[in-house]
Design a protein that fits this description.
The complex is a heterodimer.
Chain A: H1 2-37, H2 50-59
Chain B: E1 4-8, H1 18-27, E2 37-41, E3 49-53, H2 62-66, E4 72-74, E5 80-82, H3 92-96, H4 132-138, H5 150-153, E6 160-164, H6 165-179, H7 188-191
Antiparallel strand pairs in B: 1-6, 2-3, 4-5
Classes of the chains: A mainly alpha, B alpha+beta.
């Protein structure tokens, strides 16, 4: 009886350890995902739309 | 490839501060931060001039050079942007910037600085264009909407110009040629019929 309860406690601690490791791994992967979303590509954002052309035209006075 | 530039025509700026107000309103900039401000030289004296100043999106930006966490990046059209996720608020960029563009919100009661904030040329940041996250961190992304910075678009006298550097400089050149300078300026002969020298 005493041996059984000891085993149960050990198995609980073992699985609890696996759970904690899994949580840490999940958090790390989330952190990586956040870092990837803020990775700038530096591509051009400007385009000479009709709106922009109108602004240039209005500035010529 | 177009290169984005600001140009302030000091002959036209009337120090109305509308560019400052429009910027704060458009991007919902927090208290204590001015991404743009108007500087007046020789205030109250003959020859007084005002210029509207913000981040000039330098081609060889000193803020980028000194940043210890490398949070700055430049788009291929010359807009200097930064990531607030990487910024540590150290203030090096403020010391490096000749225009005093970087601003810092107060993050604590003992003078600690928050993440740096500056003019984005209304081009947002590294987050997805026009997303809520981008707006919350960097303000509106008008460039992605096919527009130009709000400060220049709403300038009443069109003193502040923004956009493709080639076009903006051409507009300014036309103005300078049109209005002349000194004795060649428009109206000079009427003001000084005797032919006063400059």
């Amino acid at each position: 009886m005493s041996d059984k309860s000891t085993t149960d406690r050990r198995s609980f601690l073992k699985w609890a350890g696996f759970g904690a490791a899994g949580t840490v791994a999940a958090a790390a992967s989330t952190q990586t995902a956040v870092a990837e979303t803020v990775n700038p590509d530096g591509s051009a954002r400007y385009s000479e739309t009709d709106h922009v052309k109108k602004v240039y035209e209005l500035a010529r006075f | 490839m177009a290169r984005m530039k600001f140009l302030c025509d000091a002959e036209r700026c009337i120090e109305c501060n509308a560019c400052v107000t429009a910027c704060k309103n458009e991007h919902e900039v927090p208290w204590g931060i001015n991404r743009r401000r108007v500087v007046t030289l020789s205030d109250g004296k003959p020859g007084e001039r005002s210029i509207s100043v913000a981040c000039m999106h330098c081609s060889d930006a000193p803020c980028m050079a000194v940043c210890p966490v490398d949070c700055f990046y430049q788009t291929s059209d010359g807009i200097v942007l930064h990531s607030k996720d990487l910024c540590i608020g150290c203030g090096y960029c403020f010391f490096a910037c000749p225009f005093g563009a970087p601003q810092y919100p107060q993050s604590g009661n003992f003078g600690s600085r928050g993440k740096m904030d500056k003019c984005t040329f209304c081009a947002g940041g590294p987050e997805e264009d026009n997303s809520a996250e981008e707006f919350q961190k960097y303000g509106r992304n008008r460039i992605a909407e096919g527009k130009l910075p709000i400060c220049a678009e709403m300038c009443a006298t069109k003193a502040l110009l923004a956009g493709d550097g080639d076009i903006v400089s051409n507009i300014y050149r036309e103005r300078v040629v049109g209005r002349g300078f000194g004795s060649g300026a428009w109206g000079w002969g009427r003001a000084y019929p005797g032919g006063a020298s400059n």
